[in-house]
Amino acid sequence: xxxxxxxxxxxxxxxxxxxxxxxxxxxxxxxxxxxxxxxxxxxxxxxxxxxxxxxxxxxxxxxxxxxxxxxxxxxxxxxxxxxxxxxxxxxxxxxxxxxxxxxxxxxxxxxxxxxxxxxxxxxxxxxxxxxxxxxxxxxxxxxxxxxxxxxxxxxxxxxxxxxxxxxxxxxxxxxxxxxxxxxxxxxxxxxxxxxxxxxxxxxxxxxxxxxxxxxxxxxxxxxxxxxxxxxxxxxxxxxxxxxxxxxxxxxxxxxxxxxxxxxxxxxxxxxxxxxxxxxxxxxxxxxxxxxxxxxxxxxxxxxxxxxxxxxxxxxxxxxxxxxxxxxxxxxxxxxxxxxxxxxxxxxxxxxxxxxxxxxxxxxxxxxxxxxxxxxxxxxxxxxxxxxxxxxxxxxxxxxxxxxxxxxxxxxxxxxxxxxxxxxxxxxxxxxxxxxxxxxxxxxxxxxxxxxxxxxxxxxxxxxxxxxxxxxxxxxxxxxxxxxxxxxxxxxxxxxxxxxxxxxxxxxxxxxxxxxxxxxxxxxxxxxxxxxxxxxxxxxxxxxxxxxxxxxxxxxxxxxxxxxxxxxxxxxxxxxxxxxxxxxxxxxxxxxxxxxxxxxxxxxxxxxxxxxxxxxxxxxxxxxxxxxxxxxxxxxxxxxxxxxxxxxxxxxxxxxxxxxxxxxxxxxxxxxxxxxxxxxxxxxxxxxxxxxxxxxxxxxxxxxxxxxxxxxxxxxxxxxxxxxxxxxxxxxxxxxxxxxxxxxxxxxxxxxxxxxxxxxxxxxxxxxxxxxxxxxxxxxxxxxxxxxxxxxxxxxxxxxxxxxxxxxxxxxx
Length: 812
Prior knowledge:
This protein has about 800 residues and is α+β, with helices and mostly antiparallel strands. The chain has 29 helices and 20 strands. A 6-stranded antiparallel β-sheet has the order 5-4-7-2-10-11, with no helix packed on it.
């Protein structure tokens, strides 16, 4: 058996190593952009051979191959000369007479406010080396380049006509990011993330394997991840219910006890142990491992430049995680971050993140990012397990893992939004679906199947309400199956499973139905969507990159499953179709509900698309392999060679697809920049604990506002109160939410920040300081530094911190 096991491993490891070496030698690259300075508030004098603009800067890495600037025209309706060109000379600051490149680009058609990219051969020996980019134009015309009048880039300076000037050019650097660069980043990330990832593996696999071995037997490995995800919110819920702390010691004890229990079960049940180990003899097992590891590597590289989780939801996910850590249990409200009636937010993801933060001794926001990316990396494993259960074969399951792990931009794109709790719910959902169907239909279910289904359903409810709603059509299908072929034993099993799930979630249901129900009407009115609300399908998300082909493959896969009479797969496709009814109940003549919208369903498409497309590809590959085997009956060596070639092809497709999704994160959703993290440390050290900081904000959705720069994260990063809390504020006191919205809108729309009335309003609101982050917003240094009321305390690159004085008002 060991020889067969190592042979299967070698049959995957050798092609993977070979393909990796080929990739490193070939060293393909993708374009990567880095914005040096994003603000444009000043247009200097027009460019000419003598009127130059020069900006010094420090490249973050090698591979620099272009600089993009923003053109400004004083006379945009005047045609440019036919031979007009904008020129660039790039030279080291310490050796200006040795230019690295010099290039003039013809730009006859150049409109006002148009980006201008000047490309040049790749420069790989420039990382962390100060450079000077000098721009001029020949012949003279009305073109210049946008800049900012205030200092906004800490590592460089602007010169106009050879004279140093305040401000910096609006400029973006373009790099070629190579496979070798990715390898270097992976080594760096491994050093930063290895310990948290090891802690996370123990955290999930400890209780997951124990419950899987106890309840699922030979399916223990397939159930380990969803059971591990379901276990921790239940542990947190019941520890809080009986008054025990959810601290590092208790978390380690639970994890260790689960690990010991799993080892004892394996030691006592030799047939089960050998059955599980037999999977190591299969080539498909190691292909799945390779795809999962490749998926993890790509998910790490996707967020290689992030300092916090992304976008709007990430802030309150990190705050809830920190509340659990700080209180050693379930929160009862949102203090000190936000005022709430009580705490009713689903908390499954946050329970695991809080456990990880304490086990690995990392901040809450880092735990959210690491756990979230690890969950995204587990998507191919979840698809494999579900497809294996539905189709009953390994090749279709492997196809599903390949599609989701390497070809689909979803769910990797969740990193752009910080939609990690939904991802946790979608990893729990397949396990719950399989367990429910088994309870409802299998003739030989016992107490283990009922408890298994109950744990997964209860864990899903605690993890994500909207994903729990997606389980309803599957429950309807299971009930219809029970009614079609009624069996007393199945009905009894289903009732018992439901009762156990209710008992497991009872403390939380008591809070929701007892405390929250009384406040629900005052806060939300009803579940019915408001009149006139339009919930459009996010077609942009469904047409991005290869998504139309994957959706088309899913439709064909569903039809193919019907032709092949693979009814479990057909049933799964029917469930996917029924899910579209949940946010569109008006199709049935019923009022829509706001709890589940079309976006929730649309961004979950990867699960059915992966399963159905993977089934199609895997089943066709299986039939093709069987046909070739019949043609070459008895040629075992030839069959072994075909297996190796097939494995190499799968790995090659996995590497290729993954590389094309390297930069899947949307740069526009990155709110916190590295400069903000440094500034937050200064704020924590220098500002008084009772400081109230005015921050930049903008409209989000409906009546809600969001922060537009890193100042929004100061409550978490610096423990200082800001004028706009995380998005949870809309779940709090309605009057308070309206006051927050009105204040934020007034700041965003104020025409003059020097106005005495405006400054008085700030003081009456308790504002003591003002923060302008790297991404900025309506609050800008140019608008604030002309006022006597604001005194600069901190200035580093684009970030500013001002004190709101109590002295004279007006302008300087």
